[in-house]
UniProtKB/TrEMBL annotation:
Domain of life, source organism: Bacteria
Lineage: Bacteria, Pseudomonadati, Pseudomonadota, Alphaproteobacteria, Acetobacterales
Protein's UniProt keywords contain Ligase: no
Endpoints of the signal sequence: 1-18
Keyword annotations of the record: Signal
Family to which the UniProt record says this protein belongs: Belongs to the UPF0065 (bug) family.
Database matches in InterPro entries: BUG (IPR005064), Bug_dom1 (IPR042100)
Protein name: Tat pathway signal protein
Length: 333
C-alpha cells in the first residue's frame, strides 16, 4: 500500500518519471513482433516413436516452413514424461522452448502427491497454446496372439490372473491409465510392465516381451497395416477413423471405459500474451498446411485443432477426469 502511494506521488510530481513503467510493455510488444527471433525448440517428454513424437515432428516441420527458423524436436524422456515436462516448466518464458504434451501432463503431479512427493512440476507452470490431435487409444496385441476378440482376451485374463502382461510409457502415463481403467471395469488382474515412453512400450509388444498395449492410433497403425499387430477394442465413444472394424469398449458393455490420448502444445507460464497469440496464429496456419494434414492422417491421428478458451476448457475438464482415475488407481507397487 505504501509503495502504491509513493508511485502515485511520483507520477504527480514528475509525469516523465512514469515512462519507465510502460517501457517493459513496449519492449514486450517489440519482442512479440520479432518472435521467433531464433530457433524454437519443441520438447517431447518421451523417446521417439510415441504419440507425442508422431505429432510433434510434422507440426515442427510445418512451423519451420512458416517461420523460416529451425524448430528442432528434442526428446527428453524419463519418469513417464515428468523429466521433459519439468524442463519446459522451468524454461525461459519467451516462446522459444515449447512442449508437445500428452494428457499425462496433469496426471503425473497427482501421482507424486499420492506418494507424498513434491511434484516435479505443476500444471500452472504451463500456458496452454493449442490442441493438435485427440485420439481414442486402442487395445493392441501381436497378430500371432491367441485372442481375436475382446471377449477372448477378457476370458483368458480371468482364467490366468496376473499372467497377461502389458507395457506402458511409465507408471500413470496415458497408456497405463487407459489400461487400468479397462482392467478395473472388467475385473481383470493384468501385469503392468512400465517403460520410459510409448516407443519402447511398442517395441516391447512387437518383440513379444509383453502381450498387450494401449496405444494411440498413430504408433499402432503402421504395424496393424503390416500385419504385425491386431486391434481388439477402442477407448473412444465412437470407432476410430481407420479402425472402423474395431469395436469400442462402450459397445462391448463397458460404458465407463472411455479415454483419449491427445497431443497439445504448451509454453512456460509467463510467456507474454502477444507471443502466445503469434504462436496460435502460426499453428492455425500450420494445421491448414496440406502436408501436415496428410502426415497426421497417414499416421492415424487426424487434426482436432482447438486453441484459446476452447483448449483451456478441454484441458481443465480432461485433467479433472484423469486425476479422478489416478486417485482410483492409487499407489502402484
Amino acid at each position: 500500500m505504501r509503495r502504491r502511494h509513493l508511485l502515485r506521488g511520483l507520477a504527480t510530481i514528475a509525469p516523465v518519471a512514469a515512462a519507465p513503467v510502460v517501457a517493459p510493455r513496449r519492449a514486450a510488444a517489440q519482442d512479440a513482433a520479432a518472435y521467433p527471433s531464433r530457433a524454437v525448440t519443441m520438447v517431447v517428454a518421451f523417446p521417439p516413436g510415441g504419440q507425442a513424437d508422431v505429432v510433434a515432428r510434422p507440426v515442427a516441420a510445418a512451423l519451420e516452413r512458416i517461420w523460416r527458423v529451425p524448430v528442432p524436436v528434442v526428446n527428453r524422456g524419463g519418469a513417464g514424461g515428468a523429466i521433459g515436462n519439468a524442463f519446459v516448466a522451468r524454461a525461459a518464458p519467451d516462446g522459444h522452448t515449447l512442449l508437445m504434451a500428452l494428457s499425462s501432463l496433469a496426471v503425473l503431479p497427482e501421482a507424486d502427491r499420492l506418494y507424498g512427493r513434491p511434484p516435479a512440476y505443476t500444471v500452472d507452470q504451463f500456458a496452454p497454446i493449442a490442441l493438435i490431435t485427440a485420439d481414442p487409444t486402442l487395445l493392441v496385441v501381436r497378430a500371432d496372439a491367441p485372442w481375436r476378440t475382446l471377449e477372448e482376451f477378457v476370458e483368458d485374463a480371468k482364467r490366468r490372473p496376473g499372467q497377461i502382461t502389458y507395457s506402458s510409457a511409465g507408471n500413470y502415463s496415458t497408456l497405463h491409465v487407459a489400461m487400468a481403467m479397462f482392467a478395473s471395469a472388467a475385473g481383470l488382474d493384468l501385469l503392468h510392465v512400465p517403460y520410459q515412453g510409448g516407443g519402447p512400450a511398442m517395441t516391447a509388444l512387437l518383440s513379444g516381451t509383453v502381450q498387450a498395449l494401449s496405444s494411440g492410433p498413430g504408433p499402432a497403425l503402421p504395424h496393424v497395416r503390416e500385419g504385425k499387430l491386431r486391434a481388439l477394442a477402442c477407448w473412444g465413444a465412437r470407432r476410430a477413423p481407420g479402425f472402423e472394424e474395431v469395436p469400442t469398449f462402450i459397445e462391448k458393455g463397458y460404458p465407463e471405459v472411455e479415454f483419449y490420448i491427445w497431443a497439445g502444445l504448451f509454453a512456460p507460464a509467463g510467456t507474454p500474451a502477444a507471443v502466445q497469440e503469434r504462436l496460435r496464429a502460426a499453428l492455425r496456419q500450420a494445421v491448414a498446411d496440406p502436408e501436415l494434414r496428410r502426415a497426421l492422417e497417414a499416421a492415424g491421428s487426424p487434426i482436432d485443432y482447438r486453441d484459446g478458451e476452447a483448449f483451456e476448457r478441454f484441458f481443465r475438464e480432461d485433467s479433472a477426469r484423469l486425476i479422478r482415475a489416478v486417485q482410483r488407481i492409487g499407489k502402484v507397487d
